[in-house]
Amino acid sequence: MEVSQLQFNFWIFFSNALCALALNFSIFLVIGRTGAVTIRVAGMLKNWILIALSTVIFPESTITGLNITGYPIALYGVVMYNYIKVKDVRASQQPTEIIPYQITKVSS
Q1: CA-closest candidate to residue 41, choices 49, 2, 24, 54
Q2: What is the DSSP letter of 97?
Q3: Phi, psi of 98 (to 5 degrees)
Q4: What whole-number distance in Å separates Cα of residue 36 and Cα of residue 16?
Q5: What does the pLDDT look like over 29-70, one tens digit per residue?
Q6: How far apart are CA 40 and CA 37, in angstroms?
Q7: What is the pTM of this model?
Q8: Are 61 and 73 in contact (CB under 8 A)?
C-alpha cells in the first residue's frame, strides 16, 4: 500500500483563506443590514442550487422524495419563525393605551 505525499502550496492556502475572510465579511454585512433569517434563507437557496447542479454534473446522484419534501418544510419553518418574530416585535413597540387617572374621593 502506497501512501501519497501531501504537498503544501502556499498560494492555494492563501487564496482559500482570503475567500473565507471575504465570505465571513459579506455575511457580517448582510446580517447587519437585513437579519439572521435572511442568511438562513439564502443558505437554503444555495443548497438547492448546489443539489440541482450536482445532479446535472453527477447524474449517478439521486434526489429522494425525502430530500424534495425536507427543504420546503425547512423553508416554511424559517419563514414562519421570521413572521412570528416580526409580529412580536411590532406588538411590543405599539404604545400602550393610556388610562386617565381617576379622581377618587378620599374619606377622612
Answers
A1: 49
A2: P
A3: -85, 125
A4: 25
A5: 988 888 777 887 788 788 888 888 888 898 888 888 898 898
A6: 5
A7: 0.49
A8: no
pLDDT tens column, 21-30? 999 999 899 8
Residue 34 has what DSSP assignment? T
Query: Using an 8 Å Cβ cutoff, are 21 and 52 in contact?
Result: no
> CA-to-CA distance for 41 and 78, rounded, in angstroms?
7
Neighbours of 86 (CB within 10 A): 12
The DSSP call for residue 94 is S
Q: How far is CA 88 from the centre of its chain?
A: 19
Residue with cell 419534501: 69
> From start to end of the chain, where are the E strands?
none
Give the position of cell 503544501. 8
